[in-house]
Amino acid sequence: MESITIKDIAKKCGVGVSTVSRAINNHPDINEETKTKIMQVIKEYNYIPNNSARNLKRTESNTIAVLIKGITNPFFNNILKVFESEIQDRKYSFLLHRVEEHEDEIDLAVLLAKEKRLKGIVFLGGYFYHSIEKLKQLKVPFVLSTGGVSEKIDQKYYSSVMVDDYKESYKMTDYLCKLGHKKIAIISAPVDDESIGKLRLRGFKQALIDNNITPNPNLVRYQVDDTLETFSMKYGYEVTKELLQTGEEFTAIYAISDSMAVGACKAIFESGKKVPDDYSVAGFDGLDISFYYHPSITTIRQPAEEMSQETIRILFDIIDNKVNKEHKTFDAELVIGQSTKEYKRK
Amino acid sequence: MESITIKDIAKKCGVGVSTVSRAINNHPDINEETKTKIMQVIKEYNYIPNNSARNLKRTESNTIAVLIKGITNPFFNNILKVFESEIQDRKYSFLLHRVEEHEDEIDLAVLLAKEKRLKGIVFLGGYFYHSIEKLKQLKVPFVLSTGGVSEKIDQKYYSSVMVDDYKESYKMTDYLCKLGHKKIAIISAPVDDESIGKLRLRGFKQALIDNNITPNPNLVRYQVDDTLETFSMKYGYEVTKELLQTGEEFTAIYAISDSMAVGACKAIFESGKKVPDDYSVAGFDGLDISFYYHPSITTIRQPAEEMSQETIRILFDIIDNKVNKEHKTFDAELVIGQSTKEYKRK
User: Fold this and answer.
1) What is the Cα–Cα distance from A198 to A128, expressed in whole angstroms?
2) Which residues of B, range 196-225, sit inside 8 Å of A by Cβ?
3) Where in chain A is the domain with CATH 1.10.260.40?
4) Do A100 and B50 touch (CB under 8 A)?
5) CA of A105 vs chain B CAs: smallest distance (Å)
C-alpha cells in the first residue's frame, strides 16, 4: 500500500492541510469536533506525520556547506531553495556561507570543513582559478555549481555543473542578429569580471563577428560603481539610462541577466520609448519574471532546478564513493517572449 | 588613520577590485607587472585583506539557525540575505532549515538546538500558536520574525519583529476606497491560512466596512491547489485568470503580495485589458519588482532590511543577556505607483 500523506487525510476529512496540521500539533484554536474526526481518520489510515525533526540523524557532523559568491543574484534563489530541500531530504544540515568578492574560497572552505566537520561543499557562483596545490588542500568532496572555471585547471581536480555560458550567449546574440538587428548593446558585468560575465560577453562578440557585425565598444555597457549589484534590476536600469543619454544608436539590448533586462525595459519606458517597438530587449536565466513581465522577456532559460538537483546528486555520489569526479554541462533553451521583434529600418 | 580597504587599493592602482583580489590570491592569469605594482601598494599602505576565514571563531558551536516556513516567498530573499550577512559579521555560522507546512517548529527547534548546539534561533514566517508549556521547552534564545502569533500567547514568552499586517492592509484598502473603488477583489492566502494572510484579509474587510462597502465573498479569491505556492506570481496569475472568467464585476484588485500583484497584472494584460485603465492593481511588501514592473505597482513597503537587522540585534541582545524578551513593530509605507488610479464610472 502506498503510504498516506497529510493531503490525503485532509481530503478525506474535507478540510485543509493546515487544519490537519493544527489537529496533529494540538493547536488550541481548532474546533473539537473537527479535531476528533481528523484524529480518527489518522488512526484509521495509520498515518504517520512526516516530521523532519524525528528524521534528523543524531549526529552534528552531517552538514553540507554552500559557499556562495554573489548572494544577491536572484538566479541563486531558486537554486538555494532546491539545495536546501535536497540536502534536508537526505537528512543533512545545510550551512550557508557567503564568500566575499575578493576572498579566497579555498582557504575559507578548508577552514570551514575542519571546524564544522563538513561532509561536503558546494561552491555556488564565482570563478575558480586556484592552483592545483591549493585545490588539493581541500580534502572534502566538493562540486562547483553555475560558476566559471579557469581553463588552466585540469578537470580531474574538480567536479562541476554548469551551462555553456559562451555558447548560450552566442545563441541569444545570433537570434537578435537574425532578427535584423545590427546595433546591439550588451549590458554586461564590470569589465574585470572573471566569471560567467566574461564568457557571456565573449559569446556575444563572437556571434556579432560571425554575423559580419563589428563589435562597437560603445555598445558594451557596464557599471563600475561598487554600490550597484551586478545582475540586479537596478544595475540594468542605471546602465540603460546612461546608454540612452549617450545618444549612441542601437536597436536592441541584450542584458546578461533577466533582472538586468527588467531594469533596461523600465529605463526605456521612462524615456518615453517602447519595448519592443523602439528597442528589442533580451535577458538571460529564465527567471519567473521573464514570463510575468509585461512584455514578457526573451531569454535563455537555464534549467536551474535540474542543475541544482544534479549538483547535490553528484556531491552525494562523491560522498558515497560512487564517483570520484564528475562534470555535467546542461543545455539552456532560447525562450522567445514579447520583448524582441524583427528590426525594420524606419 | 582609517583602515584602508581593497577598494582604496584598487583605486590607487587604477585597476578593479577583482584584479587586486587576483593579485592577493595568486591568480595565475594576472599580468606580472600589474601584480607587482599592486603588491607594492598593498605593502606601502599596510593593507590587510579582510578574509572571513581568518576571522572565524575557532569553535563549531557558534551557530544561529533560521527556521523558515514558506521558503519560496520572495519577500524572504532579502531578509535571508541580511540575516546571513549580520550573522556572519558577528562571526557566527548561519544554518538554514526549512519547516514543513504541517510541522511543529518547536519540536524541530528543540531537537536542532541540542544537536547543533545552537546559540540562537530565528523563526521566519509561519504562525505561532503553541502552548506556553511547549514554548518553555525551548531554552535557546529565539525571535519570531515577520510571521503571525496567536493572541492567546502572552508576549512575555517570546520576542518578535513584525509589521502590523492588519493595520497596513487596512491602509492599502482604505486608499483604494478613497480612489472611488467600491468593487475591490482581494487575492488572499487559502482560507484556512492562520498566518499573516488572515490578518491582511481582516484589515481588508474592516476597511471596506468603514467605507460603507459590504464585503462581497465572491471577490475574496484564493486557490486551494497545493501545487501553487501562496504569494507567488503564478498564484496571483491563476487566481486572477479564474476571477476574470467568473464575470463577477470589480474595478480593483488588491493582492496581498507584490509577486501576486505582478501575476494579476499579467492575467489582466493577457485578457486584453489594461492596468490601471481597466483595473487598478495593488500589492504588498515593497519588493524591487514593484518599482521596476511596467506599470510600477502601488504597494505597502515593509522595511525588510531594518526588520532583519533588528531581528538579529534583538537575538544577540538576548544571547548577551542585555534583554530578556523584546517586541518591535515597524511601520510600513504606502508607496503609490502607476498601477492604481481614481475610479470613474464609465
Assistant:
1) 13
2) 224
3) 6-50
4) yes
5) 9
With beta carbons less than 8 A apart as the criterion, state whether A184 and A254 touch: yes
- Does A104 touch chain B if contact means CB atoms closer than 8 Å? yes
For residue B66, which of B107, B94, B86 has the smallest C-alpha distance?
Answer: B94
Query: Which of B20, B96, B101 shows the shortest C-beta gap to A17?
Result: B101
At A274-302, the pLDDT tens digits run 999 999 999 999 999 999 999 999 999 99
Query: What is chain B's mean pLDDT, rounded?
Result: 88
Cβ proximity of B116 and A56 under 8 Å: no
Amino acid identity, residue B293? Y
- Whether residue A90 lies within 8 A of chain B, CB to CB, comes out as no
Q: Would you state the pLDDT for residue A50?
A: 52
What pLDDT score does A112 carry?
86
- The one-letter amino acid code at B215 reads P
**Cα dihedral B29/B32/B34/B40 (nearest 10):** 130
d(CA B236, CA B246): 16
Q: Are B65 and A60 in contact (CB under 8 A)?
A: no
| pLDDT value for B169 | 98
CB neighbours of B325 closer than 8 A, spacing ≥ 6? B155, B156, B157, B158, B159, B318
Tell me the range of B77-86, B184-193, B217-226, B318-327 where mean pLDDT is highest.
B318-327
The label of the residue with cell 541580511 reads: B82
Quick one: fold of A55-164+303-331?
Rossmann fold (3.40.50)
Q: Where in chain B is the domain with CATH 3.40.50.2300?
A: 58-163+303-330, 165-302
Whole-angstrom Cα distance, residue A186 to residue A261?
Answer: 10
Count CB pairs under 8 A between chains A and B.
206
Cell of B114: 541540542
Residue matched to cell numbers 537596478: A234
CA distance B329 to chain A (A): 24
Q: Is A338 helix (H, G, I), strand (E, B) or coil?
A: coil
User: Minimal CA–CA distance to B190: which of B213, B222, B212, B145?
Assistant: B222
pLDDT for B102 beyond 80: no
Question: Is A236 a residue whose pLDDT tops 90?
Answer: yes
> Is A167 exposed, middle or buried (CB count within 10 Å of its CB: 0-12, 13-18, 19+)?
middle
The interface predicted TM-score of the complex, written ipTM, equals 0.80
| Chain B contact present for A11, CB below 8 A | no
Is 3.30.230.10 the CATH classification of the domain at B6-50?
Answer: no
Class of domain B58-163+303-330: alpha beta
Cβ-based contacts of B115 with chain A (< 8 Å): 56, 58-60
**CATH superfamily membership of A165-302:** Response regulator (3.40.50.2300)
Query: Which residue in B102, B191, B232 is closest to A17 by CB distance?
Result: B102
What CA–CA distance (Å, rounded) separates B261 from B253?
8
Alpha-carbon A174 to chain mean position: 23
Q: What is the mean pLDDT of residues B167-190?
A: 97
Q: Would you say residue A122 has pLDDT above 80?
A: yes
Contacts of B150 in chain A (CB under 8 A): 28-29
Task: Report the C-alpha gap between B140 and A35 in whole angstroms.
Answer: 31
